[in-house]
Structure formats: C-alpha cells, structure tokens
Amino acid sequence: MTQIDALTRDRVKRALRAQRIETPSWAYANSGTRFKVFPQEGVPRNPYEKIADAAVVHRLTAVAPTVALHIPWDRVDDYADLAKYAADQGVALGAINANVFQDNDYKLGSITNPDPAVRRKAIDHLLECVDIMDRTGSRDLKLWFSDGTNYPGQDDIRTRQDRLAAALRETYDRLGDGQRLLLEYKLFEPAFYATDVPDWGTAYAHCLELGPKAQVVIDTGHHAPGTNIEFIVAFLLRAGKLGAFDFNSRFYADDDLMVGSADPFQLFRIMHEIIRGDALRPEAGIAFMLDQCHNIEPKIPAIIRSVLNVQEATAKALLVDADALAATQQAGDVLGANAVLMDAYHTDVRPLLAELRADLGLDPDPMAAYARSGYFEKIRAERVGGQQAGWGA
Ligand code: LRH
Ligand code: MN
Ligand code: MN
Q: What is the pLDDT of residues 199-217, one digit of tens each?
C-alpha cells in the first residue's frame, strides 16, 4: 500500500479545494416511489426552505455552493429575490431543470407529441426556463424528456426525431451568451418501448448538430445494467461534449439512491476519467450535480453523505500515479497498470479529507457536525406540512 507523500498530499488537497458539487432542490423535499411517499418531519415547504437546507450542506462541507432548481416545482413570483435569498445564505442558484413530463397534455409526449399545439406548449415552457435563467443568473438549462412510445407502431420514430431536433433548435437559439443547453438521456421509463433520447449517442448527435452551447448530461442511473459509464465520460470529454453529471446510485433501474452507495468503484472509475481529462476544475465547465431521492433516509444527512462520497472518490482518483500508469500502459504491463489504479482506489483518503476540512476551518466530520448542530430539531419544530418534490405520490 502506497503512503501519501507530502507533495502528493498538497496537490490532492489543492485540487479538492476547487471541487464544486451542486445539490438538487428536490432531494430536500418529500419523495417516494409510485407505491408510497413516506413524509418526513421538517422537510421544506417552499423553494426558500430548500435553499436554506442546501446552504447548511454547503456550510458543513464547503463543496456544495449551488442548488439546482426544477420548474415548476420551484416556481416563485420573483426569481431575482430567490437568487438574493440564496446569496444571503451563502449559496447560488444553479441549473434550471425544465419539466415537461407532468401535465395531462403530455400523455403522448411533449416536444415530440404528434399534436403541434402540445409541442408548442412544451417548447414555450423551455423558453420560459431560459427567461428564468436570465433572472437567476443560471448558466445551465437541463433538459430531460420523458418522450417516447410504449408500443411498436404507436408513432413514427423518425418523425419524432425531427420534432425533437426542431424543439431543441428553437430553445438553443434563445440561449444568451454564456448559457448552455444540457441534454440528458435515459434508456427507458416512463416510455417502455422507444425513448426519444435513450442514450448518449443520440444526445451527442443532437448536441453536435445544435452547436457549441449544447452538451450532454450523464445521469449515472440512466443506463442498461453493466454499461461502462467511464467510457462514455472519456469519449464525451475528448469530444468537448460533456456538460454535466446527474450523480446517483442504482442497483436495478433509475433508483436515485445516494451516489457512491451501490458501486463506489464505478464512481472512482468515473472520477479517474475526469482527472485524466483535467475536467475537475470549475473552469473546465463540467457541472457535477446530484440527482437523488431520499425516500426512507433523512434528507440533509443523506445529501451530506453523498457529497462526501463524491469527494472520497475524487481524492482516490487524484491519487492515481499518472506517470506510473502511463509507463505501465506503454510497456503493455497489464497487471502493473491495473495495480496502479487499484492502489489508489484502496487508499483510505478519509484522514486526508478530515485534514482538508480542518485546514478550511470546518469540522472534520460533517455528518457528526450536522447531528450536533440542532438544525434538524429547529426545522422539525418550525416546518409543518412539508412539500412533496413533485412526483411519486
Ligand atoms: C429523470 C430525471 C431527470 C429529472 C429528474 C427529476 O429520471 O433523472 O433528471 O429532471 O429525474
Ligand atoms: Mn437526472
Ligand atoms: Mn433519473
């Protein structure tokens, strides 16, 4: 087992200090499966309270300075006021997630619906989300479409691609300077036969056609079991088309469990490709977001745990000896190269992360610090009738 020398320690801590992880507003609210939502005590009743909770996560970890919003779940009258509230709490508003999957009108799809009036309504919502970005100062519009078909022959696959391309084009053309369109793919659900953006290849092709402001989102729960996600990361990074992650864990389908809980080794392999592509720095433009639901576990601690899991995987990936890896790869030393990677993965980085937090004036154990803080007792007493995240009733 390799020891972490002083130089490496400094390099890794410096890189970790620059890391940014965005938490999702909906993860703070009640959520569940289609069978049951188990409400929790103290959950936020409005977007302001979700932001207050996100600010607690940031105060304890110093790596989660932004919160993603989902419209209309986080609809407010005055977005500039919401942005100001966030700033007062020490965080900022992040990606705006559009939602064209919850209206009765969208039974046969939103932007790929056969009815032009429904398509118009859906596109208008996407444009409204860009208006909101102008007010919140958000850089990213995150698009996921539930569009697809359940039965062969139900609708024309190719025509639906044309409708998708047209809607994306109109939205893309509305983007201002410095704004991006992030397209998220998903293999299946709620459509069970053919999803209109089912995989990274489809998302990549549309983003390529759109132009430089369009990039792909990898939601780690949106693939077939066994998919090599780190390959997708490497490919998209090399092509300059990776825009963001929606991090979560899955055992079966789109489980939305805490990132790093089901397969920490996969998370390490993903972060290794990020380090390999020099994409951890915020200037590299990759948004590292969580997209999770905490149906049975307490929400704020679950989000802290998730943030720490990403940090741990990142620290291990930063420990990979790049020179030794390149040398063993070049020499065709299969076992040696694998050992270089595994050495880093097997290193216990928790003491280093505790040291980093102490350097930053934080409690070295954010989970314990939250438990001691009294915040949960305060919100449990103050908040009655917490809001549901928006689905799963
Ligand atoms: C779809 C998805 C998408 C939505 C979120 C709530 O499964 O991953 O990112 O916006 O869930
Ligand atoms: Mn997602
Ligand atoms: Mn999902």
A: 999 999 999 999 999 999 9
User: In the predicted model, what is the mean pLDDT of the chain?
Assistant: 97
Mean pLDDT of 178-189: 98
pTM exceeding the 0.95 threshold for the entire prediction: yes
Residue 198 domain boundaries: 19-382
Q: How far is the CA of 97 from the centre of ligand 1 (A)?
A: 9
Q: With a 6 A CB cut-off, is 145 part of the ligand 1 pocket?
A: no
* Residue 6 falls inside a structural domain: no
Indicate the number of domains in the chain. 1
- Site to substitute for ligand 1 among 144, 185, 257, most atoms within 8 A of C-beta: 144
Please check whether residue 4 lies inside any domain of the structure: no
Residue 294 located in a structural domain: yes
- Please give the sequence-ordered ranges of beta strands (E in DSSP) within 220-286, or none if there are none: 242-247
Q: Which ipTM was obtained for this model? A: 0.99
Question: How far is C-alpha 370 from the chain's CA centre?
Answer: 23
Instruction: Report helix, strand or coil for 44.
Output: coil
Q: Is 7 a domain residue? A: no
Nearest CA to ligand 1 atom 2: 144
